Amino acid sequence: MTAAVKERVGGWWRARREAARRDTGMSTAEYAVGTIAAAAFAAVLYKVVTSGAVSGALESMIGKALDASF
To answer: Which one is predicted more confidently, 11 or 6?
Structure first.
C-alpha cells in the first residue's frame, strides 16, 4: 500500500471512530422509547382482550375447541 492510500484509509477510520464516540448515548434513548412504546401497546392490547365482546368471543372459540369430537 502506498503512503497516500494508508493516509486516506487511516483518516477514514479516524473519522468513523470519532463519529461513533459522539453517538454514545443514542442507543440507550432508542431502547427507552421502544420499551415505552411496547408497554403502551401491551396496555391497549390488554384492554381490548379483556373487553366484554372480545372476551366472550374468545371464551366461545375455546369452548368450541374443547367440545370438539374426534
So the answer is: 11
d(CA 5, CA 29): 38
Alpha-helical regions (H) of the chain: 3-22, 26-49, 52-66
> Looking at residues 40-52, what average pLDDT do you find?
93
* Residue predicted with more confidence, 45 or 23: 45
Question: What does each C-alpha distance from 9 to 1, 16, 42, 59, 67 come to in angstroms?
Answer: 10, 11, 47, 64, 70
In the three-class reduction of DSSP (H, G, I as helix; E, B as strand; rest coil), residue 26 is classed as: helix
Q: Which residues of 53-68 are buried (b: 16+ CB within 10 A; e: fewer)?
A: eeeeeeeeeeeeeeee
The C-alpha cell at 38 is 411496547
- Domain ranges for the chain: 3-66
